[in-house]
Structures are given as C-alpha cells and as structure tokens.
Write a structure and sequence with these properties.
By secondary structure, the protein is mainly beta. It has one domain. Helix content is 15%, strand content 43%.
C-alpha cells in the first residue's frame, strides 16, 4: 500500500487507521520534531522541522511488540529540518543520525 504525500520531503498525510504523535525535542542549538505514524504492524518515524522531515525510518511490530529490525528509508538535507530553520548541512545531519540511534535504543 502506498502512502499519500503532499510533496517530496513533506510529512505524509495520516490515514484513518493510524495514530500520529508529535514531540519536539531540543538537540543542541536546534529543536527538532519527531513524528510517528503508528499502525498495527509498523511504525513510521520522521525527524525534522515544522513541515519537512530529514530522516524517515520504519520499525516493524509483531503482536504489539516492536522488533529489533527496522529500516532506514531515507536521509535528506533541507534548511527546514529544524523548528528554528537554522539547520546546517553535515554537522546537524550527523547529530540527527546520532539522535535517531539513541532514540531507537530506548524505544
């Protein structure tokens, strides 16, 4: 099943059977948005700014338990990947990847 999106890089539109949660997290000098789209068998995780994301990964669920296997779908750069729009190429992407690994380890 394909996901409906607005434009490339923008957060996808939610579907009827999804639970969408948004959390803002301070990461150094930037604040990022972590958006999860949860369904019965998977969780799509997007990390970015108000409208655009820079990291998309997918986690697999089985019997309401998140498996230790997931997929890093895409990493992209955009100035709008933080809530303050002060995202720097290279340095902040590395920080986001480190944050993702840390976030997933406690997920």
């Amino acid at each position: 099943m394909s996901r409906r999106v607005k434009k490339p890089g923008y957060y996808p539109l939610s579907e009827d059977n999804e639970i969408v949660t948004k959390n803002s997290i301070k990461l150094g000098t930037s604040t990022i948005l972590v958006v999860t789209y949860e369904r019965n068998r998977r969780i799509n995780l997007y990390i970015g700014g108000h409208e655009k994301w820079c990291i998309h990964c997918e986690l697999i669920k089985e019997n309401d338990v998140v498996k230790s296997l997931g997929y890093l779908i895409k990493i992209r750069y955009d100035m709008l990947c933080s809530l303050e729009s002060n995202f720097r190429k290279g340095h902040d992407i590395n920080r986001l990847i480190h944050f993702l690994v840390t976030y997933l380890s406690i997920f």
